[in-house]
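Slide 14.
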Amino acid sequence: MDLHSGLPYWIVRNSLLDYYHPLENDLTTDIAIIGSGITGALMAHELCRAGIECCIIDKRSIATGSSAASTALLQYEIDVPLYRMAGIIGEKNAETAYHACLQSITDIKKVLEETGVDAGYEQLPSLFYASSPADNKLLEQEYEMRRKHKLPVSLLKKKEAKERFNVETPGNALVNETSAQIDAYRAATGLLTYHIKENGLKVFTHTDIKECTETSDGCIMTTDKGYKIKCGYAIIATGFEAGQFLPKVIMDLTSTYALISHPVAPEYLWPTHCLIWETADPYLYIRTTDGNRIIIGGEDEKFSDPQRRDSLLRNKTHILEKKFRKLLPNIPFKTEMAWCGTFSTTKDGLPFIGNWPDKKRIFFDLGYGGNGITFSMIGAQIICHMLQGIKDERSSVFGYKRIEKYW
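Slide 15: predicted structure.
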């Protein structure tokens, strides 16, 4: 299945990485990571930094799956609000999840700085607005819960949001100063290129894993060409495509839409270029790029049929444009590119990180939902710690033991 279609901006902005290295023989390695997107790249970074031998295998060119189509907002705010998540997984666990995402934003920045990868990282405020006046109460509940757990947040009345950000919000808004945005494609390709050069990381592209079997002392993978990969551990970092390796369906598939504008004169952009999103489900979200373009995303649909998904692209583009102009009517917005893709969500808004209950040698690093990149950073750290025998309190919150309870 195609993960995306249309013309994702990041591939045009950066051009495809000319790297072609399919596996042409049997291979033995300590750890094999399946997936070369931002999740696999962060996982490889943590392992290389810890001195653990690993390799990456991907059936596509590097980072040309979901990472190429990601709008790459980095927020501590999770798709499921904190006050609601507390009722699903318990307040302490919800607090841990939110604080983990907050720390992840800083950790991603550190990874890019220590490797010298320019992924367009920019720290920005985030504006989370009520989609209707009726949602003001929801924001007040969320504000009080975040304040209780010492998360950075301010509550703005509708008039205050207009004065500060020049946005015509239907209701009040929550603001924090700790969000960020990046180019996920550039981050993934940059990190992998760095470790190929510095640590001898082996990356095998255009190599499709058809089977992954756990043994008493490791795993054996079989490629589409019949080659065998013997490894001590396997790490699945393939997003919703991980379904072929999971014994049970644990995610819902969703089609999403995004578009990007022509460059806009700086004086037309809203103050601070903050990230913008809303309480509605599905929600609209907006960001800028380093070239003063505007990215709009949303209009999600609860299906994954790529033909049906693609057929709606033109109509969804018109709807997103209309919503943007209502929110920011003074900006001369004109769409230059549009694309659509498929991603996964979970019932509690959290990723799945760690071992399946009866598997010890296969790890899953699956950052589902709108926080995929921050979840990927968390997952890379947790799995690296597990491999080293280091206790990580986050593992129980994001792990698979919660499956039977919520699914």
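Speaker note: The first strand starts at residue 4 and ends at 6.
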